[in-house]
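new request in #modeling-help
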Amino acid sequence: MAVDRVEGDVLELSEARRRCMERAQPGNPVLRPLDEAAGSYLARAVVLPEDVPPFHRAVMDGYAVRSGDVANASPERPAVLTVIGEVPAGQWLEETLRPGTAVRTMTGAPLTQGADAVVRLEDVRYPAGSQGRPGERIEISVSVKPWEAVQRQGEDLARGSAPLGTGTAVGPSEAALLAAAGAWEVEVYPKPVVAVLSTGDELLDGPGQLKPGQIRNSNGSMLRSMLRLEGWEVRNGGRCPDSVEAVAEAVERAFAGADAVVTTGAVSVGDFDVVPAAMERLGMEILFRRVAIRPGRPVAVGVWGRRMWFALPGNPASAFVTAHLFLLPALRKMAGAAKWDPFQCEALLAGRPPERPAPLTRFWRGRVRIEGGRVTVDAAREQSSSALSSFLGANALAEIPPGENPQPGDPVKVWWLGSAGLL
Ligand code: AMP
Ligand code: MG
């Protein structure tokens, strides 16, 4: 049986993620021109209205023939055929191929009725005086099988089939398929608009000289970059002071133009950790406020109808990790994705930090590689939650279950980050 509550109100990761994903729901479908649908998710399976290709067509330059006419052709006894026409791509010949005849047919051109194969130009010879044009003769010294060098109507994708299901991302191959099938408008879910807000009296947002005790706001830039790379529309809510009223007001304002708000900081148990109180003041339902993970134990998610507030911790690595565990998957689901989790697999631990086992799930930042056909992950680096260097260049999170202490060579679960991570 799954343990929901690990200690007090600290939730186990799987339960926290379940609650969060359950509440992330897509908006109402919209019809978009295909060229504007890139990066959106389909709101309806696309049933192909046309065969692809729409007719039998040549895939080589050559002559359309009846394969039976050249079944016994050989260099010693070539088949002699009369050319009755020629078709470039885009043309249509209203003729039917009778025995003993051929049609000069270019790549992409329709196969003349009655023909069932194309003989490549390289396998055709012209008798003296012939250039293989209509009214002239050709010699074919190879036999071809039925449908050789022909792509049959609907062979690639059949009319009525539904190769793209609901929740499929419209990427390059999907766009090609939709265009090929004549689907110039597609029904997709709207992309979420996300506002990013950084709490903290100590933050300097933007350029300028640091005052004593100030630090620069790195979380805002990290999150906006992350969200833009995911393809979402991002609003910069700037910085907000550490008071319940200020945070509640700023978040409420941000919700006016956004489906989701992500904040960093003020969610722990310190004197100025005002996020849970701000959530309550806004009348939001708090799904959880602590999760048994490191980094990222203080992380809260609040819900207001379809809108979600992701309150990530202020420490940069904690914000980075919790964004990957909660924010990005939930936003993908809000965007209508059928799959929202990063790709996960087992990797051999290539290096590890000098840490003692902990009673919660740890996420080591690391680098996955494929070495000698095996996936390895090197997590021998700074792992402090306050260190930017702990995730600089990282492309994976190694998940270390509570109490475990894996050594180099041991298998661990890794979550792939970045664009390679969503499969
Ligand atoms: P908090 O979660 O607000 O207690 O912040 C934890 C630590 O993260 C503190 O050292 C903060 O100064 C730091 N921090 C908070 N917000 C940011 C931010 N936007 N950029 C960089 N560091 C931050
Ligand atoms: Mg703070």
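bot summary: Residues 316-334 form the longest helix (19 residues).
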